[in-house]
């Protein structure tokens, strides 16, 4: 396992993205949103929490293969401005989900020729993809429909 350092850095990067995602989801749930959307976002928050914890455990398992680098910390957090536009907030969440998926792809490339079991990484990627699809489907339902003549109906 010659590229353990790169793998560990990628795991830390994904962990920090989950932490950021939790902050964005929390900000979105503070808004006045429909119950169905609130349920979806709270479920996504719980899944992100679980996946973040599993990435921390994955990090701990890798750490024994090398000298201790750095533990994922709270320095990578962002402050989210309170947005009144829930559509922009949901788009931000979907974009973050896509970024996490891309980082999982990088991680899978890094661990391809190693003896690391990639099953959990594939499961995480699949779960985030599913969450993204459901969020985008819900977002499309919320968008006003544009009629043939350019009129918007609500």
Euclidean distance between termini CA atoms: 57 Å
Quaternary structure annotation: single chain
| Gross morphology | elongated
Average pLDDT works out at 81
E-strand count: 2
Task: Tell me the CATH topology.
Answer: Ferritin
Which CATH class is shown? Mainly Alpha
The CATH superfamily turns out to be Ferritin, core subunit, four-helix bundle
| Architecture per CATH nomenclature, i.e. the level-2 architecture | Up-down Bundle
Number of helices, counting only DSSP H or I runs of 4 residues or more: 4
Largest sheet: 2 strands, antiparallel
Number of domains: 1
Order of helices and strands: HHHHEE
Structural category: mainly alpha
| Rg estimate, integer Å | 18 Å
Q: Which ranges are low-confidence, i.e. pLDDT below 50, for 5 or more consecutive residues? A: 68-83, 145-149
State the strand order across the main sheet: 1-2
- Helicity level, as a percent range? 55-70%
